[in-house]
Every structure is written in C-alpha cells, then in structure tokens.
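Repro case for the chain-ordering regression, as requested:
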Amino acid sequence: MASPRQVGPSNYFNPASIDALPEGTANLVRRRLATLGPAYRLFYDEPVEFVRGSGVHLYDVAGNEYLDVYNNVASCGHAHPRVAAAIAQQAATLSTHTRYLNQAIVRYSEDLLATMPDAIGHVMYTCTGSEACDLALRIAKHRTGGTGVIVTRNAYHGVTTEIAAISPSLGGVESLPPWVRWVPAPDSAHTDISGCSSLGEWFADQVQQQIDDLAAHGIRFAAFIADSIFASDGVFSDPVGFLAPVRAVIEAAGGVYIADEVQPGFGRTGSAMWGFDRHSSAEQPFVPDLVTIGKPMGNGMPIAATLMRPEVIEEFARDMRYFNTYGGNAMAIAAAQAVLDVIRDEGLQANAADVGDYLRRALRELATRYPHIADVRGDGLFIAVELVIPESGEPNEALMLSVVNGLRRRRVLIGTAGLLNNNLKVRPPLVFSRADADRFVSELDGALAESTVTS
Amino acid sequence: MASPRQVGPSNYFNPASIDALPEGTANLVRRRLATLGPAYRLFYDEPVEFVRGSGVHLYDVAGNEYLDVYNNVASCGHAHPRVAAAIAQQAATLSTHTRYLNQAIVRYSEDLLATMPDAIGHVMYTCTGSEACDLALRIAKHRTGGTGVIVTRNAYHGVTTEIAAISPSLGGVESLPPWVRWVPAPDSAHTDISGCSSLGEWFADQVQQQIDDLAAHGIRFAAFIADSIFASDGVFSDPVGFLAPVRAVIEAAGGVYIADEVQPGFGRTGSAMWGFDRHSSAEQPFVPDLVTIGKPMGNGMPIAATLMRPEVIEEFARDMRYFNTYGGNAMAIAAAQAVLDVIRDEGLQANAADVGDYLRRALRELATRYPHIADVRGDGLFIAVELVIPESGEPNEALMLSVVNGLRRRRVLIGTAGLLNNNLKVRPPLVFSRADADRFVSELDGALAESTVTS
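-- result from build under test --
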C-alpha cells in the first residue's frame, strides 16, 4: 500500500502550539495525546471542551453557549429528550442482536423502507457509515464479479481499509489503487461543460470515460459510488436532475449505483428525505441499486445501514451470511425509531427547507457586501459558502481558516468543505431556526469583517 | 473476488420451515425476511423473540425466563442498572465526537491502558470489533509496507471487506486471497506435535512456514493475527505460554503481532484481564504490537478499540489522520467506563475464574456419564464442550445441533464453536453464578439424555 498523504491543511489544532493554550486546556490536550496518540485531530487553534448540549447549542466547561452550525449527527438537536428517553428505556430493558427475533427492528425497517422508492426492498444494519459503504461495496463486487470502482475527485466514504481506498479526500488521488478511478465532481459553479447539453450529460460522460478505461486495463466495472450532495467535494446540489444521465451509463455497463446518503439523508436537504431523490422526476425516477445511510440515524447512537434492491443481494445471500454483533441491536433500533418519529412529528425536513432558504437568502445578501464570498449553494440545511481572494477569484484558504477560528471565538461552530479548503460547510442540527440563522449570519459578518481587515 | 461458500451448517433456522412455526412467530419471521432480506440468520429450529433481559436471564414474549449461556456482549449482565444509568445520563447530556476535547475519553483511556502491559501506550476508538481489526491491519500494513497476513484455519475477525478476507470461517480457506495464508489452530487436543518440543514450538513452526511461503511468492509479510483463545477454531487455551514462540518468529520476520481480544478480553478467561496475558510469564512477558477489543466493552453499546505500541502508529499518523464519527463518542465512553467499573467493583474476573473452574469440573463429571463428551476445555467462562460419536470418536455435529435445540426448548441459550461444528460454546455473562452453572449442567444432562436416546 502506497503511503497516502494528507491532502491540504484544514482547521485542525497544531500540537506544536500546545504551550500557547490556557493551562487547563494544555494539560487535557497533553493527556489526550499521550493516550489517544498522534493520529487523532482536534478542531480549532484553541480546541474546545464541551460538557453539555441542547437543541442547536453546545456548552463548554465554563458554561458558555455555542451555536452549533457544524454537527450533523445530532440532527434532531443535541440530547433530544425523546431520543434520550428511548435509549434510556431500552438500555434498562434489553440490548441483544439480530439472531433472535425482535418486533422493533422489523417495525423500524418497514418504517424506514417506506421513506424510500418501492424498488428499495431490504435493509441491513451496521454501526457506522464506513461499515455501511463497505458492505455495499462488498455486495456490489460479489454481485458483478468486478472490482472496478469509480468515485469523485475528493470523495469521502469512510475509514475501513476498503473504503479508505476509495476515499481520495484522505490520501489524495495519487494514493488510489489501480481498481479505483476518479471523475471530477459535478461542480456547477466551476465546470466547463461546453460540448455537452447539460451538467448531467457532462458528468455521465466523465464516468463513461473511466468505465472505458477500466475495461481497457482489463478491470471489470463493479460500482459507482457518490455522496448525493457531494459534501467533501464542495457541496454540489444543482441543477436537480444532473444525476439521472450517469445512472443510465452505469446500468448499461453492468455496474451498480451506490448512493451514499450518510451526509444528505434524513431530510437534511429539505426538498427530499434522501439526496438521490432530489434528482428524481415524474418522468424519470432516480432509484439507486444500493443506498448507505448513517450519521443522524441515531442522533448520536452508533447505527447505520445499507439498503438495496432485493435482486442485488441474491448472490451474496446464497454464498454468505451476514452478521454484525451490534448492528441493529435493540438499543440502536430504539434510538433510530425515535429519530425517525421526531423528524416526522417535528417536521424537521420542512424546517430544513424553510430555514435553509431563509439562510441562503441572508448569506447572498451578505455576499453583496463581501466580494470574498463567491458562491452560496446547497439545499435545505446543507450549504456551502465559497470564499475567494476578491482581486483574483482564487480560492482563499487563509480567509476560510481565519473565519472558522474567528467564529469559534464568537461561539459559533462551523466546518469546511471542498478540495481546496475554501468553503464554509453550513450543516447545523435540523432544529435550526430563522433566529439561529440570523445569529449565525451576524457572527459570520463579524468574523469576515475582522478577517478581511487583518488578512 | 471468488464466491466464498459457507463452511459447514450451523444452528440456524431454515426459512423453508417457516410454515411449521407457531403463527405469531411465522408472521414475524416473514416480515423480517421481507425487510432484512435473505442474508440474515436466526438461531434455532424455532427462533425465539426476547423482550427483556436481566443479569444472566432473557425473557421471551410470553414471559418465560431463559438462562443465557451464549451472550458475551452483556458481560456485566443484561441491562445492568449501572451501565444503563450511565448511558441514560449521557444520552440526556451530550454525545459528540473526538474533534472536541472531552475529559471522559481521556480518563477512560488512562483507565483502560492501565489494564494492559506498559508497552501498549495508545488507544484508538471504533464502533465494532470488525472496525478495530480493520484499523489494526491497516496500521500494520502501513507500518511494514507488506500485505501478507497469516490467520488460523477457522479464524473469524469480522465483516468488513478486508477483515472478511482474512476470516476463513466465513467463506472457507478456498476463498482466501493470495495475500492471506492460514495455519492450523494450536489445538492441544488433536494436534500431533511429534518432532517439536512443545505445542508452542509446533505452532511457531507452522507460522514460519507460511512466512517463508509468502516470501517465496514475493509477498511481504505484514501481520499475524489471532484471537487469543481461538474461539471460532474451537477454544484453545492451554498449555499457557504456547503463544510465546510464535511472537518471536513474527518479530524476526519484521511483521506485527495483532492480538484479537474481542472474544477473550475484559476478564472473561478469569486468569487474566486479556487473553494474550495468559501466555505471559515473569521471564517472558507476552506483549502484542496491536490489540483489538470490542463486544463486552460497552455491554451492548457499540464501542470497540485498537490499542498499540506507540511506535507502530508513527508512520500512519505522519501520513494519515484518523476519525470515526461515533468512535469514542461521549455516550459510548460513558457506557465503557461503567462496564470497566462494574468489572472491577463486582469482581467479575475473579467470578469468571471461580465459576469457570466449578463449571468445568461439573462438565467433566458429566462426561464420565456421556462418552459423547470427548473434551472439556477453556479458561474462566470461555469453555468448549466437544461432542463426538462414542464408537468412532468422530465429530458429532448432529448431536451438537440436537443438543443446542434441545437446550433452547429447556430455556437455555447456547452456541457452537469450531471448524467441525461439534463444540458447545459456553460463554455466558460474567455474572454467571455456581447456581447458574448447576442449572446449566442439569439441563445439558437432560438434553444429552434426550438426544443420545433419539439420535
């Protein structure tokens, strides 16, 4: 295995700066380094210690309140009482595995499958999105007899050996094994699609070229996998429908389409429960072969899943059994059921649509005062704010880092997205309100004002 | 990827028998098949639905109490109040990830590392044993620059693509890729070690042969990985010390030793907190390069970990970062801390030693009346009871299946172990008492009496 390198810097704490931290923080960081070792990263120039969360807020050890615009696991809000109660009740009752019968897993599975197109008929449970993508790829390879996998330029799908190998955001495209090919992301803001009738046609053509190249090298095509909102590539959501042409290309080549919904799923995009469904139309429904889900699924409880068209699992089920000790255990299912109920009962998808629209309008308004903001894109509460050098239009990573750390000082938590580290990733819990959006935009204004004066 | 086949039948429900089940059970099994699909398995000729657990007992939907001699995840006992309270408290407070600072993960890590040899300095968190083994192997390959892995004949280490590929218990040794080699398990009961001074020397010689064969095929050796009690191979625990010689062989070849403690860890073997430590002596301490832990770690909460000598992670940390969204999250750590505290405060390791000894004596006593029992082996509460055809001494899989289903009717839950499906796997929660052992032996006596009359 070639040594992958980390692509680009990011908003991580540099352990060389440990002595500059407040004494209490420095001591905790030292103990952490001593025990967890050097492969772990902390956010921010000054790492922050949280002790409590509620709704869209996290509270540090001194009791300061932070507005959370980053954490997409706690989609129902931090420490949601209904989810916490479901977990507490189940932990005190039973938590066994899927080799015994259990009503709850069947009921939840029926409920979950009802949110998907009819053709998606089965669900298999894992504990993490990494495991869900790993299982999807394992099934895809078994199904097709192929090994070739196509991903996007800065894709991230997880950390198992197999999935890290198809995640160029971890080690760069230079580190990809020969059976993995990459295509540029469908970046509507920066792609020259001249010669093609649409971004979708252009994207399908990119994928076809890689399918052909795999064939030319004697590697049988197995799967195309994409995050339906292309989060790590920079958040590419529009024009809706652009995923339809690539679907046809993959089917024609005998491969399977894996929709990674770990990031866009569970209503985050507002306009649909699942990111792939945004690309459906009445004339042309978009149905993947396999779907992976995770992160917000348990609002903090480790649970994830792989869903599929029944025909895709036939050969695998004939040749193999599947078991994941904790996957689909009673406690994880209790959490997941509560999350799905909360998303419905509290109208979180509609809220994501409403507040997302409101927030994008406010951010575009802000952009009229900051030429550093080149683009505001996304859907629902998955938004990228692209930062550039005004004079040249070049990516402005320095400004991004300054703004992220400035927002942390202003008690607003945010992350970054994209190959060139110049997008703010706006991805709050789905209970985010218009007032929260106002607070965020106001603090972003302040951080931008400070950063653009000093940088 | 070649089509692996399932090795040997096991005590799984056959879906062809669905119409023979009681109506309520049949309906639930049908709904389960419809949603979870065909790759899942259920235990027993008549699958059982549990709704509640407490200590060593599980309760079915009709309120019947079962003695649990199978479940090793709930090592502290089902729904342990202290663990459930810790989970409930944390779920209602905070559950975030490792990119923020948190006291609890550092405190737990210090506590956990204190149970290991001093040379094991770091711990990295995952959600499942599969992920822990996958990460260990990823680190090992990165460290050594090699790809060659050596496992035992019927090893099981997990279900990610990479780890399924080194788990011949899933698909048979025929399905192993070229970079995976196998050695016979160190089976003290059935191995002809003539020509060697000890089982350990014989085992080291087997591993050396595979290291040499890898080299002859131009494949660089990366790692040897073994479950320290060889659970899926049939439970091989003695003579203690037999792992020492293989350690030296691996070190000399420049590979790393990965101790998979997912099954024997956390005090189950009674004589040691960790399975590898059973093979230590004052003159020759046994210290692996990497250790993987899981299953009982959270008593039902998904949490697992990879521990290591600090030098093993250096190259990986230089070239890669590591992040697992749920791995080491606050809720999982709260559960793990409660489990470690319960193991200590309730003296579960000492109980495993005491009750395990008592139980093995009782099982050996039973064996004097049943020539079908060829061997009783193991340590603490990890015991194999080997069943044979008395006349020939051949493995008796039919009897094993009859006894497992007979015990289920007698409301005792038990599993199977070993390549030839002829071992009962005795692996109850660690709160198992001498009275529980008496009940188990009495019911086993009954099931054997029935089965040996009718079979």
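Ordering looks correct now. The longest strand of chain B covers residues 221-227.
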